[in-house]
Specification:
The chain is of the alpha/beta class.
Amino acid sequence: MWVIVGLGNPGRKYERTRHNVGFGVADSIATGAGGRFRRDTHGDLTARVEWEGERILLVKPQTFMNLSGPAVARAAPPESERLVVVCDDLNLPLGNVRLREGGSDGGHKGLRSIIETLGSDRFIRLRVGLGRPPEGEEAAEFVLRSFDRGESEAIGQAVARAVECLRVLLARGLAAAMNDFNRRATPAEP
């Protein structure tokens, strides 16, 4: 079974914020696979679906981003080859996606929590680009803001691109998905 964890912050206040792109990807997969999220015994939202011929456990931790590690540890064993964490990334241009296995947290507090809790960085992460905050705006403020009207279309395309990347990962493997999706692309590209 694959475990796909979409990172975000719980609650209506954060629903449409930049930091919740991971939740958006998980929601899109659940909707496409006919799944429905339910609260598990730990309070996290999970959905079990059949998608692309694979059994998938989708997880949306209901802790704040910087405390995501325990929810991921409960869902998947350390060093799982079938664990994918989907999160936002300020270092990627808006709408780009980047898939890789292992590596540092890149300053992302959700990834930092997961690495510290698992005691390993050996899991697949799919980052969805937000771009850098405008001059003078703190990163923490930027990620907790909703997308501007002009950015909404780009992020919608990025979520669709992230879902397609995961589809390729399941069907053809990590190397193929990285080759297809890790090149720089404008959000308007197919």
